[in-house]
Write a structure and sequence with these properties.
The complex is a heterodimer of chains A (163) and B (150). By secondary structure, chain A is of the alpha+beta class. Chain A has two helices and eleven strands. Chain A has a domain of 109 residues: Immunoglobulin-like, CATH 2.60.40.680. In chain A, strands 3-11-10-5-8-7 form a six-stranded mixed β-sheet. Chain A has a five-stranded antiparallel β-sheet with strand order 1-2-4-9-6. The longest helix of chain A has 27 residues. With 150 residues, chain B is of the alpha+beta class. Chain B contains seven helices and four strands; from the N terminus they run αααααββααββ. In chain B, strands 2-1-3-4 form a four-stranded antiparallel β-sheet. In chain B, α1 runs antiparallel to α3, α1 packs across α4 and α4 crosses α5. Classes of the chains: A alpha+beta (163), B alpha+beta (150). At the A-B interface, α1 of A face α1 and α4 of B.
Amino acid sequence: MTDRMAAPGAPDFGEDRAFQEKFWTVQRCAWVVFALIIAAALLGATGTGGPLANQEMQIGEVRVAAPRIARWASTADFKVRVGGGDGHLTLLLGPGFSRSFQIEDIQPRPDSASVGRDGQMLSFRAGGGTIAIRVRADRPGIASYAIGINGGGGETMRTLILP
Amino acid sequence: METVLRGVAIYVTVLAIMRLSGRRTLAQMTPFDFVLLLIVAETTQQALLGDDFSISNAVLLIVTLFTIDIGLSYIKRWYPRTALVMDGAPTVLIRDGRPDERALERTRVSLDDILEAARHQQGLERLEQIKFAVLEVGSGISIIPKKDDA
């Protein structure tokens, strides 16, 4: 049985104003946190668009755009912008890539694809334009993978995959 | 970013449609109205989530929707005119025992609805026992009985 202390003659509403005052303060602090989360999301800190959500890397004449932050079980896009070259491009996706991502679609389709110890090798006829790779993140955590162009050893990129 | 924008778009759309569809739908909710609400919820789910079923997306979406709600509650407090536009104002349906036919017609509330509320709230049996009936902003019809019958 609760110990209720209503003043004699006063209505007993079961009010605990002291607790309520503290809880109102906690609520307002939480609202500030909510606003900060939304601001961070608008900046891209939770992925899916926004200035922080993507990263870019220049490898020779090719510019690779990759997600800096992605979400588990959700799609993300990699873009390989080809500046020129001899009309032929090979793209190496290191073993870390397939550990963290599942490729859902590639546009245009590669002429050939092979897999080895260094990862997946995709060959395209591309003298310019953009190769788009849509992936689905397989597991939460930090994905670390190498991306190589035309036989290069590969530059390491990292993507934070949120749960 | 996309999640926040989706949340804002759906919140504004649902708010506008609910407001424009009239208060009666929520005040006198029938079983069909309830089913209709479930269908609306199911329909908006796809637009809210897209193909992103991650926990981050769900958390961000919930935070976004609640924060808009909190923000709007402050805006309505600071600018009462906004509250009037968004929530409306109470509508008197019976004034001093006389039904306001125009208000009844425009709010799509029938005298049967008022009598039902009168039976539930005050145990009243006849229309003549009602002094005021008010369609409230958020909680149905309030009945104030005539003093003699109270």
